[in-house]
Structure formats: C-alpha cells, structure tokens
Amino acid sequence: MYQIGVFATGRGQGSRGLLQALHNNIESGHLPVEVAFVFSNREPGEFEATDGFFELVQEYGYPLVTSSFRKFRAALEDDPDWRRKYEADALQRLERFRPEICLLAGFLLWVPEMCRRYTMINLHPAAPGGPVGMWQEVIWQLIESRAAATGNNMLSVIEDLDKGPTVTFSTFPITGHQFDRHWKATEGRAISDLKANEGEKLHLFRLIREEGVARERPLVVETVKAFAEGRVRIQDGLVVDGNGNPAAGLDLTEQIEAAIAGGGMQK
Which of 14, 201, 222, 245 has its CA 20 to 30 A from that of 20? Predict the structure, then answer.
C-alpha cells in the first residue's frame, strides 16, 4: 500500500480538518494509501489545542512521533546551531519510516534537511504563477490587480519553501454573479484605503478566502490520490507525469469542482 507521512504542528482546525479528510477518504476507499506516521514539533502536554490533535491521531491509530522544538532549543541554551541539531534528532526519530511522499499540514517549523530526506509537498493558496506570500497577502494582491481567477496549488518542497515546482493545481473564477457586486464596491478605491478601513472584513476579501478554503482539502486529497495511482510523481527533483515525462503540474480542477458540488469525496 502506498504510504504517506504527515508533518503538522497541530495547533488549529486546519491541520485537524485535513487529517480528518485524509482519514475519511481512506476509510471510504477513495484514497488508496496508509498514513505511515504523523510528526509534530510539539509534545503532549505543551498546548491544549495540540493535545486535541494528538488524541485524533491516536484515535485513528496512526503512529505519532513528537519532538518539542521549544524544549530542544531551551535545553541547548540558545546554541546558534540548535535548528540543525533539532532536525538531526527529528530525522533519527523517523528513521524507521519509509513514506513515499510527505505532506506539510500547518507545520510551523521549517527544517531544510527533511526535504532532502523525504519527497514533500505543500499547499500554496494561489494558482500557478499567481501571487506569492501568506494567504492574506495573496488575496490583497488579487484584489489590487483585479484578477479574474485564482486557485490553489500543491508544490514540491525544496529548501526555499514555497518556491518549488507545481505538482498539482486547481483554479476557480472570482468574477460572476456572487462576486461582481463586491468588485463594484471596490471600484475607484486604493488598496491602502480598503486595508485601512474594511481590512479582512471586506466582503470581497472574505468571499475569495471562503472559496479558496473550500477547495484546499479536496486538492490535498486528490493530489495524494494522483501520487498513489501513479499519475504524477517527483523524480530527481522534477515533476513528471505517469509516463515519466516532465510536467508543468496536473490540473485537478474538474475533480475539485466535483467534490465541491458534492461529488462523493468525504469531507
């Protein structure tokens, strides 16, 4: 069975919801994979929210591996080399696992050696070639440029996080009947004015965010499925299709929109 690893800090609903989506789709038979391990850079007892995530991992019966970077750094008394030493310790704890790909799911500590050990993928909340940065920055850039569409893409993780090649993606329009009146409300207003007055409460901002979030988990699930079925893979650092030919990324828009419309994917 195709095996995946999950790296998650586990601090909020995002990582919890993604793990639930993976598990539900595995249980339904939609996703032909096994979760080899879940790794967190926190330990039980550190944070209440993370403990809830750990309970979910254990409920599902997935191997849980934890190593607190806060405790590790404190024990080294601010040794400037603490990050490399932490990474070496974490990799040793994971030595027995051999996942074919790993997901970053809200993992808040980036340690570059891991992406040399494992084939890793991560979600970026924009279409290929779209805005870069955190999701908030992406949305403001979309509004400022008056973009007609956006999307999400799964990236191959390299040492320069969020700069790796696109593995899979999906797109969706941000114009049309539910968007147009909100675009009209921003006409003639500078982006600085929108940020200063409405900020993230701006209706257009919230609507773009909602539509993007609705597609994030389905894209992760369908990406893992594409890997497990051999439709896409990462070979020598390059994204290739099922025949081994270089690929610019697998377009999963049709599958994602089917999931949004209630096409059978388990949420």
Answer: 201
